[in-house]
Amino acid sequence: MENVVKQVDAAFLYIIGFSLVLLLLITGAMIFFLFRYRQERNPVAADIRGNLWLELAWTLVPTLIALSMFYTGWQSYLGLRGVPRDALDVRVTAMQFGWSFEYPNGKIADTLFVPQGRPVKLILTSLDMIHGFYVPSFRIKMDVLPKIKTYTWFYADKPGKHNILCTQYCGAGHAEMRSELRIVPESEFFEWLSKE
């Protein structure tokens, strides 16, 4: 199974790296042109309109660069939307100012417990207004809308604790709308799940 976090990170690094290279090239060209083609050396400006090769170059090169960035981003987007079949379904409900997590057996918790080594599908909805479900460690950010179900997923690869935040301002208690994702060994998860 592909690591979606690495895909998202690679897409960001590719786009940022390409943008930095372009920034340096364009800035270097501007400085070069500033001195090479200043008015004292070139009192009459050259007219380059109608130059087919230049027009093709400054149209095709940026188009190809933009398409390569789009392709990289699209691949990571598909990874974020393609949920594995064996994923554990957890219903996530947002409300001012908290999160509720419901498991297939009907158990409800205010902390998201998941088993290590398993993909987890989060089915998201809101009781009142737009919220934003955000787990920075897994690059998950999904808007949570009232009366509309959305979804996202992640692969719980290592045990640990991770922050869950709301990214949409939802009122005076927005800053306190936090929860925790706890990834635990599978045996510990099923023991927790069976407790009332």
In short:
This protein is α+β, with helices and mostly antiparallel strands. It has helices at residues 4-36, 52-81, 186-194, and strands at residues 88-95, 98-102, 108-109, 112-115, 118-126, 131-135, 140-144, 150-156, 160-166, 178-184.
Structure keywords:
alpha+beta; about 200 residues; 2 domains; five-stranded mixed β-sheet; Immunoglobulin-like
Write down the CATH class of the largest domain. Mainly Beta
For the record, give the distance between the C-alpha atoms at the N and C termini, rounded to a whole number.
33 Å
Oligomer: single chain
User: Based on the structure given, which CATH architecture of the largest domain is correct?
Assistant: Sandwich
Instruction: Report the structural category.
Output: alpha+beta
Classified in CATH, the superfamily of the largest domain is: Cupredoxins -  blue copper proteins
Radius of gyration: 25 Å
Strand content: 25-35%
Total DSSP helices: 3
Shape estimate = elongated
- Profile the largest sheet: 5 strands, mixed
Number of strands: 10
Q: Which residue ranges are poorly predicted, with pLDDT under 50 across at least 5 consecutive positions?
A: none
Helical residue percent band: 25-40%
User: How many domains would you count in the coordinates?
Assistant: 2
What spatial order of strands do you see in the largest sheet?
A: 3-2-1-5-8
- What is the fold-level CATH name, i.e. the topology of the largest domain? Immunoglobulin-like
Mean pLDDT over the full residue set: 89
The ordered string of helix (H) and strand (E) elements is: HHEEEEEEEEEEH
